[in-house]
Structure formats: C-alpha cells, structure tokens
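User: Can you model how pyridoxal-5'-phosphate sits in this protein?
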Amino acid sequence: MSAATWQVCAACGSEISETDPHPRCPRCGGLLEVRHRPPPQGGHALRATFDARRGVWRGALASGVWRFIEAVLPNAGEHILTYPEGNTPLLTSAPVAHWAGSPALLLKHEGLNPTGSFKDRGMTVGVTQARRIGARAVSCASTGNTAASLAAYAALAGLPALVLVPKDQVAAGKLAQALAYGARTLLVRGNFDDCLELADQASERLGVYLLNSVNPFRLEGQKTIVFELLQQLSWDPPDWIVVPAGNLGNTAAFGKALEEGRAWGLIDRVPRLAAVQAEGAAPFASSFRSGFARLDRVTPHTLATAISIGNPVSHERAARAIRETNGVVTTVSDDDILEAKAAVDGAGIGCEPASAAAVAGVRRLVKEGVIGKTDRVVAVLTGHVLKDPATVVHYHQEREPRPARANRPVEIEVNLAEVERLMRG
Ligand SMILES: *Cc1c(COP(=O)(O)O)cnc(C)c1O
Ligand SMILES: [Zn+2]
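Assistant: Here's the modeled complex, given as structure tokens:
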C-alpha cells in the first residue's frame, strides 16, 4: 500500500485501508494489525519532536497518547477525541523496591489515567477511529475497566455505548463507572470469555463498532505506555518491563512499541518483557512453557478480576512480543498478589489487585535469578486502588488468618479514654 498507515491481517496477510470499518479481517475473520510507514525524519528528530511537546498544555498534543501521534495514528486529525489521558508518573518507592528485592524498581502508574486504568490510552484512539469511520454506536465485552473507559469516552464523543460484563465478577468501582457514564450495561450470566464471544457476534449483527482489544487501534494507543516511560528515562531503556497479563493486549502492544521504537531509531536496545499471570488464569504461562506450541483455554479463577481470562484474544501477537524481546511469562498466586498489593498500597501509592501481580512477578523473577538484583526494572501498575474497594476492605477487615499487613479498624464508643487507650496501645 502507498498510504502511510494501513491494516494487515495477521492470519491471511490481506491488506486493507486504515479507515476500513471492520474490527476483524473482512476476508478470514483474523486479527488485524495497524502498520505505519517509518516516519521520514529518523529517530533523533522524532525524539526531539516528542520531547518538545512535553511543554504543551492544551489540545490533543497535551495528551500522553497523542504526543506520540506519528507512532499512533498520524492521520487522525480533527477526529481526535481526548480527555486528555496518559502523562502518568514513573514512581520510585523504597518500601516497594525493598519488598520486591529490586532496588532500582520503578512503577509506571497507569491507574492515574482519567478513568483509573491504562484502558484510556487505547480508548482515546479507539473512539477517535470510531468517529473517523462514522460509527453510530460502540460496544465492548469487559472485565470492568474497558467498560468504564468505553463508557466515558463514548459519552465524551456523544456516542451510545453498549457494554457486556460478567455478572458478579466485576469490581464495584468499575461497574459504578459504566453506569455513571451512561453505557447500556448488560450483566451476562457467564465469564469474560463468554461476554467477548457474545459482543463479537452482536457487533456484527447490530452494526455496532467493537472496541475490545480485538480492535487494533486500541493497541496503537496502549503502545504509548512504553513510549512515555522511555521518554521519562530520557530514551535510555530499562532492562525489564513487567506487566500483568490477561487478554494480552498490553503484552502485544508493548512488543509492537519496542519493535517500532528500535526500527525507527527511538531506542538502540530493547528491554526484556515479563508478562505476569495469576496462577488460576494462566493459559499464556502454560503456553510459554511449551515454547508457545499451543494455547489451552482454561476456566479462570482469580481475585484479580482484570486478568481473570481463560482464552486470551491476543495470544499470537503477545507470543511474538515475548519471543522478540527475549521475554518471559510467569505466574503468581492470589496470596502473592494480595501481599504485593498491601506493599504498594501501604507505601502510599495504591493499585488494584491485577496491577499488584506485576510487582509480585518482579519479586518471583528476582528470587529465581531471572531478573538480576541490579537490573533496571519498570513495573506497570495498570489500575487505581479505588477500582476494587471490596477486596481491600475484606483483606484488612475480615481475612483469616489475619495477614501480616492487615490494618484492622477498631469500633469504639464515643469515649476519649478509649481513643487514648487505643492510640497508646
Ligand atoms: C485490562 C487490564 C489488565 C490486563 O491487560 P491485558 O491487555 O488484557 O492483558 C490488567 N490490569 C488491569 C487493571 C486491567 O484493566
Ligand atoms: Zn485475513
């Protein structure tokens, strides 16, 4: 194709235009990938362009996604819909680094996006693309955060939104957001994988634009987590980037960002990717152990609902990301996740359970000698502490046996002596 941006089917190789409205390959139903012709100015000049925009306060270029427009969706133009999002901090925390056994650990806090998760980075691009192709409504299946983000961005765009979530498996903060932002919300009596199949079929039947991570434009936005953290490190790449992994959209997006970053001269060295799954929802980790020979669908069970996924849609492209970055895939137990979360929360930073999986993963990989003690590591905190209040309250208030980090509240009468006694005790 002669255009600067186009789409390619990963399964059959068909090329289609960047404004083709199908969320999947119209020939074979395979997953599509967005391709960009390398920006003509070269890596050095491109970095300078990105860096110069860090002082921008208004308009699309103030967004931590659209600041990288040349690498995201160069022709989005007047269709761009931005909150803005991104511009999330890269934090140091001595207590978290100590807990993980990784002194140089940095935390990229994506929970500080407008709706409290990294999903906003993909959604700003997805809804922008929906406007470009003239979609009349948008939809998604979700474990919660995609629904919250879609609901908000659809409302900003004035588009009707339909979200399908698994009944009783969505954290309270996320469901509340979907309702608050006005999305038509369906509570499906099934798990996330069931929701995704249903959303896929419904979008075709109803002509609604599907904005799951099936949609390749969302991944273009999620790449900017990597671009932004590289920029925050003055384009000096860390040794590792560690990310929790569910449907594997982020793992795939990170791989693509690193591949393009090197090909376009933004970086001269590619960090290794580590994808971390919950033990009870780890089809990608099993697949990794078999050299990605195959993927066996599992029935997922983990309290980290955002990564409770048994049949990850981006499996193939995520496997490529792990292979090409000499990466690894590992697992952590729900107990590890809760302990990591208590460490992150107790340090004053806070994150949702799925995000803590990344930090628990760092600890495991350091213990196993995969990540070196002096390696520079960035762990991505994918969601905000307020997303899942029930898990927090249960851990601190009710969990038995009492966890070492449990912060039990104490009920008292209106009595100063009792306050005194408890403060001294
Ligand atoms: C969506 C999500 C994940 C999982 O990301 P994938 O791209 O599906 O692997 C992890 N953490 C949080 C908080 C999420 O919202
Ligand atoms: Zn195809």
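A couple of observations from the model: The chain has a mean pLDDT of 96. The first helix runs from residue 43 to 52.
User: Helpful, thanks.
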